[in-house]
Amino acid sequence: MESKVKRLEAKIKAMQALPKEEGLTVAELGMDALLVDESHNFKNLAIEAPGEVQGGIEGSKRAWDLYIKTRWLYAQYGVRGVHFASGTPVSNNVLEIYNLQTYLQPQVLDQAQVGSPSAWAATFLTPITAFEPAPSGSGWRQRTRFGLVNIPELMRMLRQTMDVVTATDAGIIRPECERINVALPMSTNQIKLMRGLAKRVERMQIQRVDPREDNLLKIISEGRRLSLDTRLLRPDLPQDPEGKIEECARRVFAEYTASQEIRGTQLVFCDLGTPKPKSQGIYGELRKTFAKYGIPEKEVAFIHEAKTDTDKGELFRKVRSGSIRVLIGSTAKMGEGTNVQERIVAIHDMDPPWRATDIEQRGGRAERFGNINTKIRRYIYTVQDTFDTFMWHVLKHKAELFFRVLKGDPGIRELTLEVDPTFAETAAITSNNQLVREKLEVEQGIAKLEMRARAHLDKVHGARRLAAIFRGRRDEIQKQLHVYASLAPAESSKVWRFDLSNYGHSSTFKGSRDGLVKLLRKIVETQGLRVIKGMSCAGQPVTLKILPDKKDWVIGPVGAQIHRENASSVEKFFQDYEATVAKLKRDEESTEVQIADALAEAESKCDVDEELITLRARHREILAEIELESQKTLEIEGESLDADPAGVDWSDDLDESPSQTA
Predict the structure, then answer these.
(1) DSSP codes joined into one string, 467-517
(2) Residue 291 DSSP class
(3) Which is it for strands 82-85 and 265-269: parallel, antiparallel or unpaired?
(4) Other beta carbons less than 10 A from residue 561's beta carbon
(5) Helix or strand or coil: residue 83?
(6) Burial of residue 129, with CB atoms counted within 10 A of its CB: 0-12 exposed, 13-18 middle, 19 or more buried
(7) Exposed, middle or buried, 274 (CB in 10 Å: 0-12/13-18/19+)?
(8) Are 268 and 248 in contact (CB under 8 A)?
(9) What is the DSSP letter of 386?
């Protein structure tokens, strides 16, 4: 910590020593609000990970610059006027949520006493431990990173300043997307190379391996490249005639031909094997294979060929006009800001992206307003029993979970954004252990059953609330019936009586309502009274209270008063008495039925509980079996690969992969 303070102090001094540039300051611009589009580009405010936990945020200059501007605005105008917009508010580190709140909710964090990263982490994060190669090469060490906890409470805090609006919520018309999973079998060479990876995993387990020579992350990375094309590991091998490139080319050509009339366009996403100065990598092989099927090479472009913003603008114009029919690129270069949706008929995912949020970024290039097509297709290419299956499953599951978190699903209390497989899972995948496939299927089953269980739980809670409401309604009805029982009419509602002995007369009035009203008017005018008693209607006592702004007629003795606006409404009360009591009794009976139905619903059993218990138990067994299998020595016989000396030579290409230590 002391060394970091010294580095920062030195950095500040160096900045202060820089010559002052001429120009306007933020204060001189007269700015009183700040609207930040694609705000996730400013998520990297520096945060030290608490304790021994890995996964802090290094920090970027542009994030710090924006932070300073927001603080200046708050100091001038109070905590308001800063607006963020983003389709992916959190990418791959849960600490980004804290940064989001630091930008927009500093006062909320302080009020909740979680203003510091350590206090926030202690409340909303939990350490999750896994194994990774030790730097010394002498076995494995525990790696601890963050997962989210207390999610409903965190989201209630965050949503004080955050609205989650989907395209459907906003009424935006977008093309309907059909998702097509293209599952391919492993080729002979892929099987052999996967066994080689399994052998390396086994070697790392039973003996010391220098991490500079080999490590788990390297094996995972190579496993992902192997799922795309064997030549990313062995450039001397031939192209697989039934592999991803050939299958993608067949489907791209089919879409190309079908959309010829409108010059429909397609996007091909591929994060691995990107072009390098001396090799076009997988991209070049895709273009050559497309040409073999009949798509002119001049109608196929790489996003990497646009070196400047001007080049990119011109490339996008050609795609929008249909002169470029197929655009190939990575998520990083062809994701955010790529507005070429006008003619897109299909998008193709050659490999899984690096982050769960990238699934939406890719799809959003075509599934957006402005596409002239009402229906599009999304092809997802996977090779069975490889890292593809595992990665797509985990990415989709986490993307769905995180979307439900943002929408405020109270059933999700914990979440981690970790994607890479553990050591045990890597060992199982590389050795083609069918337990991995079963694990994914079981996890998918558990997720579906948990959704049904949460829906049942919501229904139970709702039934209990309804039962309480119905009980309150029944109690109120019973109180009214008790009052009405004491107010049963003894004679016709047309008969009014008035004992005048208290008002200077010896007689008693008996007659109609009109005669009573005339008599009362004289008494009020001559005696100036405000409360008149001694009257009755239908044999029940009636009291008149003359208030400053109205007259209040009260039926019944004290404790059983029913107020009416005038004498005619008193008569109406007794005329409708029997019908009103009958209706109250019917309401009481129906409310009792509603209470019984609600209680039955509240006490109902969830029809998936037993199945969910069984699947969770099986999931624990599978994890234990995978872990046990990883402890065993893998006996793999060496096998030769079908080499092709004339194969294209290119180097491993991971230049666009994000840091795997974040």
Answers:
(1) HHHHHHHHHHHHHHHHHHHTT--SS-TT-EEEE-GGGT-SSEEEE-HHHHH
(2) H
(3) unpaired
(4) 14
(5) strand
(6) exposed
(7) buried
(8) yes
(9) S
Token pair recorded at residue 148: 């989210």
Identity of the residue numbered 414? E
Burial class from Cβ neighbours inside 10 Å (0-12, 13-18, 19+) for residue 290 reads buried
**Beta strand 540-546 pairing with 82-85:** unpaired
Task: For 8-21, give one letter per residue: b (16+ CB within 10 A) or e.
Answer: eeeeeeeeeeeeee
Confidence of residue 437 (pLDDT cuts 50, 70, 90): low
What phi, psi does 407 have (nearest 5°)? -80, -5
Interior/surface letters 502-538, b for 16+ CB within 10 angstroms, e for the rest: ebeeeeebeeebeebeebbeebeeeeeeeebebbbbb
Kindly report, residue by residue over 264-288, the tens digit of the pLDDT. Answer: 999 999 999 999 888 888 999 999 9
State the DSSP string of 131-170. Answer: EEE-TTSSSEEEEEEEEE-SHHHHHHHHTTS-----HHHH
Whether this prediction's pTM lies above 0.85 is answered by no
Indicate the residue type of 634: L
CA–CA gap between residue 505 and residue 519 (Å, rounded): 12
Cα–Cα dist 199/156, whole Å: 49
Query: How crowded is the C-beta side of 403, counted as CA atoms within 13 Å?
Result: 14
Nearest CA among 142, 402, 183, 381 for reference residue 272 = 381
**Pairs from 334-341 (Cβ < 8 Å, separation ≥ 24):** 334/267, 334/269, 334/303, 334/365, 335/361, 335/362, 335/364, 335/365, 336/38, 336/361, 337/38, 338/303, 338/365, 339/370, 340/265, 340/267, 340/316, 340/365, 341/365, 341/366, 341/368, 341/369, 341/370, 341/371
Query: Residues 583-608, buried b or exposed e (16+ Cβ, 10 A)?
Result: ebeebeeebeebbeebbebbeeebeb
58-88 pLDDT per residue, tens = 778 888 889 989 998 998 888 788 999 887 7
In whole angstroms, what is the distance from residue 568 CA to residue 10 CA? 90
The three-state secondary structure class of 63 is helix
Find the angle CA(331)-CA(332)-CA(334) to the nearest 5 degrees: 60
